[in-house]
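Last lecture ended with a question: if I hand you only a sequence, what can you say about the shape of the protein? Today we answer it with a concrete record. The protein is Tetraketide alpha-pyrone reductase 2-like isoform X1. Below, first the input exactly as provided, then the predicted structure, then a couple of comments.
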Amino acid sequence: MPNRSLRSRSHIGAILNTARTTMYAYAKTTAEKVAWRAAKESGMDLVVVYPAFVVGPLLAPQPTSSLRMIMAITKGIAGRKETITHKPWIPVK
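The predicted structure:
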């Protein structure tokens, strides 16, 4: 995409324009810029994956409401018989 910045072609750029910019978003965007530049310079194709959900060690004293929801789903929601038996995720550190 010639003459376009990351901000104009990626939803990650939108995150940087919000008041809630996080270090994760900054690091992800910076790494993606480097990857796009390296791909262009080497003539390689690049595929960028935007994960639907990223979780890591808690940065706040308490989990957010979104994280509590994911924790409830993965552990089985009270009052429901369904639980996730096949867990399609892995820890990446």
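Comments.
1. The mean pLDDT is 73.
2. The first helix runs from residue 6 to 9.
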